[in-house]
Design a protein that fits this description.
Strand content: 25-35%
CATH class: Alpha Beta
Order of helices and strands: HEEEHEEHEHEEEEHEHHEHEEHH
CATH topology: L-amino peptidase D-ALA esterase/amidase
Mean pLDDT: 95
Number of helices: 10
Strand order of the largest sheet: 4-3-12-11-10-9
Number of domains: 1
Helix content: 25-40%
Number of strands: 14
Length: 354
């Protein structure tokens, strides 16, 4: 899939090498699918992260969650944090569609388990959200079961970024937000591992936006005559995947470092913003009927710094790509949001980043 990304503009985040796609799907087995709803009234949709291609309920995946600021309506994190495992795909949508997507994800898993003769009596579905009500008529909940099923059917490795799926109606640092992704390759004891991230960006103030260490947001805000005193009342969902052999505790430490990437971009984690990280490792799987003591390989604690750096770099680049790949959108009630890519072509802004 050909899309211009922030690196093609000349902004390169960090020093670590990327995977083939520079997306979360560089982690083997991971795919991502979208279904986008784009009408006069609705700018919204659903995005699904499939951590594996087999039945994840039958073979659960080690997972962790971290809530940096809890202004959010995510489902399933309580059990993820308690048990340290993931048993469904991860679904992203808008705030008022969480319940409908949870029900749709239950239905998908019930159907799949029945087809594959996997006993299912209870399941912990993970659904996360951002509020897209400025561009989307959110109260008329447009995202339905068929949209989630379509997103799952369309899941692939080289998926689209920007204002698609759950990112169709989001706003990031006062400009068009959306779905972004990035990956990094690290080497530990002579073996390569991949860390990837997918974000649904809907957070931050325009005046705070910092790119490559330069506060370009203040200049854009002046050129756009943006109102002063704007508040950070959005959210960002960050899904981190890796094939690194780690414990649930180590994974929890790693995913927290996504916050470093947000800080580099100028985020202050506002009162009305929900910053939520959900992570999984494909290196550890546990069968639902497992009844024996399991052996587990984990990296030495002293080697974890590389993973910290990788996830920080991924988060920063993924947010930039979520904005750079998103086009300007006019949505519900005529509300219009500009694209970062358009502003970066302005001579005044371009000169700052040279």
């Amino acid at each position: 899939m050909t899309q211009k990304r922030i690196r093609e503009y000349g902004i390169s985040v960090g020093e670590l090498p990327t995977g083939k796609y520079n997306k979360i799907t560089d982690v083997k087995g991971v795919t991502v699918g979208h279904c986008t709803i784009d009408t006069d009234a609705h700018k919204t949709g659903v995005t699904v992260v499939m951590p594996c291609q087999d039945n994840i309920f039958a073979n659960k995946m080690l997972a962790s969650g971290f809530v940096w600021n809890g202004f959010g309506k995510t489902t399933g994190l309580v059990q993820v944090q308690e048990l340290g495992n993931l048993e469904t795909p991860i679904v992203l949508t808008n705030t008022l569609n969480v319940g409908l997507m949870q029900d749709a994800l239950v239905e998908y898993m019930v159907q799949r388990c029945e087809k594959e003769q996997v006993p299912l009596k209870s399941i912990n579905t993970v659904v996360a959200e951002c509020n897209d009500s400025h561009l989307n008529d959110i109260c008329h909940r447009a995202v339905r079961e068929e949209h989630l099923f379509h997103a799952i059917d369309c899941a692939c490795e080289d998926f689209q970024l920007g204002d698609v799926g759950a990112g169709k109606g989001t706003i990031c640092h006062g400009l068009k937000g959306g779905i972004g992704s990035a990956s990094r390759i690290i080497e530990i004891d002579g073996k390569e591992y991949t860390i990837g991230i997918l974000v649904q960006s809907n957070h931050g103030r325009l005046a705070d936006l910092t790119i490559d260490g330069k506060n370009v947001g203040k200049t854009i805000a002046q050129l756009a005559s943006a109102p002063k005193g704007e508040s950070d009342k959005g959210s960002i969902i960050m899904v981190i995947g890796t094939d690194l052999p780690v414990s649930e505790r180590q994974l929890g430490r790693i995913i927290k470092r996504a916050s470093v990437g947000l800080a580099r971009l100028g985020s202050y984690v506002g009162h009305g913003s929900g910053e939520i990280m959900i992570g999984f490792s494909t290196a550890h799987r546990t069968a639902s009927n497992e009844q024996h003591v399991c052996a587990m390989r984990v990296i030495p604690e002293g080697k974890i710094d590389l993973a910290f750096r990788a996830v920080a770099e991924c988060a920063e680049e993924a947010v930039l790509d979520s904005m750079y790949c998103a086009k300007a959108v006019t949505g519900f009630d005529g509300h219009h949001i500009n694209s970062l890519a358009d502003w970066l072509e302005q001579d005044t802004v371009h000169e700052i980043l040279k």
